[in-house]
Amino acid sequence: MTTGKTTKLAASVPFNAADYLQADDIPGYLAEVIHDGDTRALPLALRTAADVLGMAELARRTGLNRETLYRTLSDRGNPRLDTLSAILEAFGLRLAVQPNEQPRHRPTPHPARKRA
Questions:
Q1: What is the pLDDT of residue 65?
Q2: What is the distance between the alpha carbons of residues 11 and 21, in angstroms, rounded to a whole number?
Q3: Cα–Cα distances in Å, from 73 out to 10, 15, 49, 99, 113?
Q4: In total, how many domains does the chain have?
Q5: Does residue 42 belong to any structural domain of this protein?
Q6: 13 inside domain
Q7: Is residue 43 part of a domain?
């Protein structure tokens, strides 16, 4: 049974992780994003962390100027290794290389095929 009345829905607001993240949480947040292994998620996570900390403070901690940071952390940004390292260090993290938990196996060459 309908009464002819409609319920007005509240306008939705885009989710912004920076609204729920504290500066003390940033190292753990970034470490989890990196640990998950989705390289596409890291630039977004770095932008979110920069929003929480503030670009001026991030510039102070990294020694990079704000323009460089804005460009690096933009949607089209592609940070150099030294820039990425400086940004991570500003959040109390460092780059490290370690073996995969599940090493990739190369296919075994077919016995009938000989290498030249």
A1: 95
A2: 23
A3: 32, 19, 10, 28, 48
A4: 1
A5: yes
A6: no
A7: yes
Mapped onto helix, strand or coil, the DSSP state of residue 61 is helix
Q: Are 45 and 36 in contact (CB under 8 A)?
A: no
| Global model pTM greater than 0.85 | no
Q: What distance in Å separates the CA atoms of residue 93 and residue 26, rounded to the nearest whole number? A: 10
Task: Report the alpha-carbon distance of residue 46 to residue 87 in Å, rounded.
Answer: 8
- Residue 84's pLDDT band, with cuts at 50, 70 and 90, is very high
* Residue that the structure tokens 């820039």 belong to: 83
Domain that holds residue 40: 18-90
pLDDT tens-place string over residues 13-64: 888 888 999 999 999 999 999 889 888 899 899 999 999 999 999 999 999 9
Q: List the structure tokens of 26.
A: 């940033």
Question: Would you say residue 1 lies in a domain?
Answer: no
- In sequence order, what E strands does the chain have? none
In this prediction, residue 114 has a pLDDT band, given cuts at 50, 70 and 90, of: low
Calpha distance 38→32 (Å, rounded): 10
Both structure tokens of 111: 């016995």
Any idea which residue has 């460092």 for tokens?
A: 94
